[in-house]
TrEMBL record:
Protein's organism: Dyella lutea
Record SUPFAM superfamilies: MoeA C-terminal domain-like (SSF63867), MoeA N-terminal region -like (SSF63882), Molybdenum cofactor biosynthesis proteins (SSF53218)
EC category: transferase
EC number annotated for this UniProt entry: 2.10.1.1
Pathway(s): Cofactor biosynthesis; molybdopterin biosynthesis
Cofactors named for this entry: Mg(2+)
Protein name: Molybdopterin molybdenumtransferase
Record family assignment: Belongs to the MoeA family.
């Protein structure tokens, strides 16, 4: 039996083995949620002109003593820039307009009293130089890098792309994933009634949901029985058409655990098998002959989800160019049991205290097959091997479902 691999070494082996899925160009309207794989630089200064920030009047301030002005024109947003040549005059302006040449101050409409073309400043209000003017280039200068490869394209990033004229953008190509449930005991979700000894397939749906939640949408679900020939045939077909295989079950050392043997026969190179952790010890990871990524997760539901959030999802995010961020630090709100030899992953429920700390309340599952309580949790915390329980107040990394 192979020696158990420490969690940190398993993570390192996976991360150092990962291929890239390449890139593709997509229209901006299909780029939301994708991972940017190009640098984006400012097309021009932003704002590209001194921009008016308030509706009101633009004036030449001078020494600030003048209190009345005569309207000499209007400068609306989107109009060509106008000029003010007479310091006794003003130009009516709207938010977003070009600041008229010759003006160096904007007076908000709320601070004006207007009678026809005559405008008087409200008593007691004193304008200041460059007031309510958004200076040219104050956001960015032409050529500044605004977006870097590896950024997830959310609403702010899409706004930057559009504002800089990028109607197409280079993003990471998302892999085609197959999730393979293994086991003679698996029945279909809608099967009525289940035969004696059967359970309904659930791991594949849970894993698919986890993938969809991170932006991996091309996911195929299938199943194989506990049979070496059938397993090998199905996996051969999937390796030819999919970049990522995720298997659930059949990966331990039982007499009907055929997944490792089938993968060896198909030329998938084993990178690791069996990790020093609870739950999820039997996990297997390898790289296919055409650089396919293969995760073979344990069949117990809690084990499968733990391995997914700890290894599978971070690995795929790295492969599409996202930076590895690790677990989110949280503070244990109560003590939690540990193991002297294994890293333990404990389901927790998360909330915030009055000081703003993120607290994690342990909600341990009785066994790795007991998953009905997981909907009342937010993820798992990782606790290193220890001869003593982890005390309340311990800081630990959280991996969210």
């Amino acid at each position: 039996m192979s020696e158990l691999i420490p969690v940190h070494e398993a993570e390192q082996r996976i991360r150092s083995s990962l291929p890239s899925f390449g890139t593709e160009q997509v229209p901006i309207d299909r780029a939301a949620g994708r991972v940017l794989r190009q640098a984006v630089r400012a097309e021009c200064d932003q704002p590209p002109f001194d921009r008016v920030m308030m509706d009101g009047i633009a004036i030449a301030l001078g020494d600030g003593s003048r209190r009345t002005f005569t309207v000499r024109g209007r400068q609306l947003a989107g109009m060509h820039g106008q000029s003010l040549d007479d310091p006794s005059g003003c130009i009516e302006v709207t938010t977003g307009a070009v600041l008229p040449a010759g003006c160096d101050c904007v007076v908000p409409v709320e601070q004006c009293r207007r009678d026809g073309d005559r405008v008087e400043l409200v008593a007691g209000w004193q304008p200041q130089p460059r007031q309510f003017i958004h200076p040219r280039g104050s956001d960015c200068r032409q050529g500044d890098e605004l977006l870097a490869p590896g950024m997830r394209l959310r609403a702010p990033e899409l706004a930057v792309l559009a504002a800089n004229g990028l109607d197409r953008v280079e993003v990471a190509r998302m892999p085609a994933v197959a999730i393979v449930a293994t086991g003679d005991e698996l029945g279909e979700v809608d099967q009525q009634p289940l035969a004696e000894g059967q359970i309904r397939r659930s791991n594949d749906r849970a894993l698919a949901a986890a993938l969809h939640g991170r932006g991996f949408d091309d996911v195929l679900l299938t199943r194989v029985p506990d049979d070496l020939a059938a397993t090998t045939q199905t996996l051969a077909s999937l390796l030819a058409s999919r970049q990522v295989l995720v298997l659930s079950g059949g990966v331990s050392v039982g007499q009907r655990d055929f997944v490792p043997a089938a993968l060896r026969e198909l030329g998938v190179t084993q990178v690791l098998h069996r990790i020093a952790q609870r739950p999820g010890k039997p996990m297997w990871f390898g790289i296919g002959p055409q650089r396919q990524i293969v995760f073979a997760l344990p069949g117990n539901p809690v084990s499968a989800l733990v391995c997914a959030v700890r290894y599978l999802l971070p690995a795929l995010e790295q492969a599409v160019g996202l930076p590895g961020v690790g677990g989110e630090p949280v503070v244990l709100a109560a003590s939690a049991n540990t193991s002297p030899t294994l890293t333990c992953f404990i389901p927790v429920r998360v909330h915030h205290d009055e000081a703003g700390r993120t607290l994690a309340v342990p909600v341990p599952a009785p066994t790795s097959g007991d998953f009905s309580g997981l909907p009342r949790t937010d993820g798992v915390v990782e606790l290193p091997p220890s001869g003593n329980p982890a005390a309340a107040g311990t800081v630990a990394p959280l991996y969210r479902w």
